[in-house]
Amino acid sequence: MTLRNDPSADPVILAHRIRKHALEMTSRGKSSHIGSVLSMAEILAVLYARILNVDPGAPDDPERDRVILSKGHGGAGIYAVLAERGFFETEKLKDHYQNGSIFSGHVSHKGVPGVDLSTGSLGHGLGVATGMALAAKRAHQDWRAFVVMSDGECDEGSVWEAAMFAGHHRLSNLIAVIDYNKIQSLAPVAETLALEPFADKWRAFGWTVHEVDGHDTAALEGALKTLPDDENRPTVVIAHTTKGKGVSFMENTVLWHYRTAQGDELEAARAELAACDPEVRDA
Amino acid sequence: MRDAFIAKLTDLARNDPRVVLITGDLGFGVLTKFAEDLPSQYVNAGVAEQNMTAIAAGMAMSGWKAYTYSIANFTTLRCLEQLRNDVCYHDAPVTVVSVGGGFSYGQLGMSHFATEDLAILRAIPNMRVVAPSETWETEDLTAELAAAPGPTYLRLDKGQGGVGRRDGEVARLGKARLVRDGSDVTLISIGAILKECIAAADELAQKGVQARVLSVSSLKPFDADAVLSAARDTGGIVTVEEHTVLGGLGGTVAETLLEGGVHPGFFRRIGLTDEYPTVVGDQAYLRTVYGMDAAAIAATVRSAL
Predict the structure, then answer these.
(1) Are A129 and A174 in contact (CB under 8 A)?
(2) In what residue span(s) does the Transketolase-like pyrimidine-binding domain sit (chain B) (predicted)?
(3) Residue A98: which CATH number?
(4) For an interface test with B, which of A128, A146, A173 has the most B Cβ atoms less than 10 Å from its Cβ?
């Protein structure tokens, strides 16, 4: 069963579950990057509920769409969405960051079905996805390569090597989604290495650019569901997001790139997520 | 060696449509025929080796057998993390081909000297490290490596060891080649600097010193048995590499002997000491300048005996 044909999946509910899992996982492991997971919850949810031709029953199908989380520090998010979509049991998420676990803080594919590339060092995902897209084109296969990137990783020169290559080779089966939450490790993106005019950079490299509200699941789905929409260009979806989205005191702060929720902060975050739980609210 | 490799790879690619050669914009004149005859199996990634290696990894994870191609430091050190994280951690069938081992590009200066590559690549898990000494070894090993795809570093030298194939002789991954037997000392070399060991053995023979010569084309996997036997059967060990003495052939042999519990009569490493070569010249000239030519090898043996 490919996930994009599953009418029962609701991206809003899935995004909420990703947030709840990620909060518990990072809290239990006392690990970082909750802000980076919260900002991309809708991106992962829409991909795995509506867009990707992947099958949890056949995670290595050679004709599947490939998915790379290039912002590997958001590992809790990809593990959460894979578990929610049936690649493995959600119970296993409790192992995240624990001694002896295969669920490392940064994404590792070893023993984890559904992970196409181990990441964690930034700037690798787009190049490998580009190679995958080229492989499909040269073999006359129809599958696509998706890569979810962070804004901060666009500081890496390797990102722009791949961007230039993909534009030159007209890899229309390559789709990048950038979680543009505007905050990187130590400071806002604009104060670190300014990316703007960001969309123009991608256009100049030969890409089709969509800009959407990265927390609007309908807008994300609208941008992603018909891709590729140009047979001669790769596509980037610049998803404008809020770092820490969903927990008020985490939103738009540098602090919650590394801080882990414990004690009162954990309780407060749980309460805020519970208050906007779509499964409760809509019941 | 380079031309022999390309010829063999072209044969392999004609018979396997999933072989892809990805160059970092190098190989003028050398890759032309491959590119013309097999355009769907050829990619020029441009002067962008990180991306070249990432492309190779992505293709290799998608059913292709990828070969990256450039001058030594560009396919290795420039994109080391792509090799470590993307190729080797995923055990992807990528063969990293470097032309210009050691001082092959001796007139081009430090940027083009491949003198740390063996040690660095050897440290990466899953990576096989291969440096043939002859054209015919290159052909054999290229075919053997292609038959068992996996992350591989293939270092090609401009020079030649100069020892022709004997009847029935085949170069094998993980096997050292006994080029000459002797009991007083064993000279162990990697790559085409074998030529200097042969000449040193000739020179020593004139003084009555019988040197065994072992040629190592495969640093990883490594032929520990051949080295342990050499330490038991001969008076001492001298390693010779056109490379730093830190962590390459000399380091591998030393580790093998100590862990194998075999203490050679004496042990010397010939190669670059911990320094940047700043002099330029042809390969033979630089071997002399940096103390790794036949005369230097013979002198080291005589002083150790």
Answers:
(1) yes
(2) 1-163
(3) 3.40.50.970
(4) A128
Distance of CA B61 to the CA centre of its chain: 26
Helix (H) or strand (E) holding B22: strand B19-23
- Interface residues from chain A to B (CB-CB < 8 Å): 62, 66, 109, 116-121, 123-124, 126-136, 138-139, 145, 157-158, 161-162, 164-165
Which among B199, B203, B290, B205 has a CA at the least distance from the CA of B241? B290
**What percentage of chain A carries pLDDT values higher than 90?**
90
> What value of ipTM does the predicted structure carry?
0.95
Distance from CA of A131 to the nearest CA of B (A): 4
Judgement on whether residues B235 and B146 belong to the same structural domain of the protein: no
Task: Find the helix or strand (DSSP H, E) in which B185 lies.
Answer: strand B185-190
CA-CA distance, B280 to B271, in Å (whole number)?
16
Chain A residues with beta carbon closer than 8 angstroms to that of B20: 138
Q: What is the pLDDT of residues A156-196, one digit of tens each?
A: 999 999 999 999 999 999 999 999 999 999 999 999 999 99
Q: How far is B192 from chain A (nearest CA, A)?
A: 34
Q: Please, are residues A176 and A96 in contact by the beta-carbon 8 Å criterion?
A: no
Q: Is residue A153 part of a domain?
A: yes
Q: Using CA atoms, how far apart are residues B93 and A241, in angstroms rounded to an integer?
A: 38
Contact B182, B158 (CB under 8 A): no
Contacts A130 to B, Cβ<8 Å: 51, 54-55, 58
Question: pLDDT tens digits for B206-238?
Answer: 999 999 999 999 999 999 999 999 999 999 999
Selection from B231, B229, B182 nearest residue B203 by Cα: B182
Residues in contact with A282: Cβ distance below 8 Å, sequence separation at least 6, in sequence order: none
Phi first, then psi: give them for residue B138, nearest 5 degrees: -60, -45
Pairing of strands B19-23, B65-71: parallel
Residue among A109, A124, A132 minimizing CB distance to B62 = A132
Q: Quick one: B197 and B95 in the same domain?
A: no
Q: Which domain holds residue B106?
A: 2-156
Distance of CA A91 to CAs A31, A96, A100, Å?
A: 18, 10, 16
Q: Encoding tokens for residue A125?
A: 């995902």
| Residue B145 and residue B184 share a domain | no
Q: Pairing state of beta strands B218-220 and B128-130?
A: antiparallel
Give the pairing of strands B177-180 and B211-216.
antiparallel
d(CA A259, CA A33): 7
Query: Of B281, B193, B185, nearest to B233 (Cα)?
Result: B185
Task: Please check whether residue B216 is in contact with residue B178, taking contact to mean a CB–CB distance below 8 angstroms.
Answer: no
Residue A259 within any structural domain of the chain: yes
Where are the strands (E) in chain A, listed by range? Answer: 66-69, 145-150, 174-180, 208-213, 235-240
CB count in 10 Å sphere of residue B119: 21
